[in-house]
Each structure stands twice: as structure tokens, then as C-alpha cells.
Amino acid sequence: MFHKPNALLGFGTALLLLGVVLPHALPVAGWVRGVLLGFGGALYLGAFVLWLQPDGCDASTLGLRRRYLREFVPAMIAYVMLLSISLVLLKRIEEPAMRALVALLPVAPIAMVLRAIIRYIRDADELQRQIELEAVSIATALVSLLYMAGGFLQLAGVIGVPAGVAMIWMFPLVCMIYGLVKIVVARRFQ
Predict the structure, then answer these.
(1) Nearest Cα residue to 183 out of 58, 79, 89, 70
(2) Cys-Cys with 49: which of 7, 38, 44, 179 at CB 3.0–4.6 Å?
(3) What's the pLDDT tens digit per position in 115-132?
(4) C-alpha dihedral over 179, 184, 185, 188, to 10 degrees?
(5) Do residues 119 and 144 both lie within one domain?
(6) Do 154 and 160 form a contact (C-beta atoms < 8 A)?
(7) String of DSSP letters for 162-181
């Protein structure tokens, strides 16, 4: 039986290989390699989280999961594309108003991702909704604690993380920790 985690691991491995091997065989821009490595790494992490999940961790209906993927995947693809375009254009644009507009290009697809997540949680059954909301609450609290601890270390001069980097990584960090916390929360309901 070919399970979803195996498929994701295989797909993630293929993208990782494309990101590492393809640039050496063909002339590929560095940012393309980065995008491929990012996709491969994200799929790999997603497969790992999916593999760790207990069987009842995502007990939503097939229709709900399909709708979620129909909304989530195109928005994430648009995000990656607009982020890449934004990064290239920001190197060429000087005017502050245009720089602000170009810098905010990737925000609209992330808003669509959030819409897909909210609709998924809203339309899930009560148990699934409880698992999702408990996991996102704990993840948000943990990342907030981590961010605050980082702020204290920054003020003490122990670490030096640029503010923009810290801000950009907040949402992805919440998503990653949410995925891990969801495994623990779902196991309680088995």
C-alpha cells in the first residue's frame, strides 16, 4: 500500500534532488535552486509531520479536505511566485512607495492561505475543531514565549537578529510548531 507520507517523502526527495542536482547539470539561476530546495524541504517536513500524526488526527470529511487543498495549494504557489518576483524587483526599485507596494505582494496569497485555514477549522466537526484550535493556541503561545525570550536576549546583547528577519519568521514558525503540537494534542483524543 502506497501511503500519503511515502508519496510526500518521495515527492519531497525528488524536489530536493532537483534543487541540488539539476543546477549542476543545467544552468539554473540561484533563486530557482533556492525555490526548489525550499519546496523539497517543506514537503519533507510536511511528510514527517504527517507520518507522526495518529490515525484520527485529521478526521475531517474528504470533501472538506479537498476544498481546503483547492484553496490552500494555489495560494501557496502564488505566494512563492510573488515572493520571488518581489525579491527580484526590490533590487531594482528605488522609490519608497513602489518598494512598499512590491514588498507587500506576497501578503495577499498568505491572506488567502489564512482564509483556507479558517474555513477548514470553521467547517470541521467539533472534535477536529477542538484539536485544531487547541494546537494553534498552544503553538501561538510557545512562539510568543520564544519571541519574547529572543527580545530579552537581543536587549542584553547576547544575540543580534535583525528585526525584519524575526518578523518574517513569525508566521512560518507558528505553522511549524502548530504541526508538531497538533500531533501531541490529537494523541490525547485517541
Answers:
(1) 58
(2) 179
(3) 999 999 999 999 989 999
(4) 150
(5) no
(6) yes
(7) -HHHHHHTHHHHHHHHHHHH
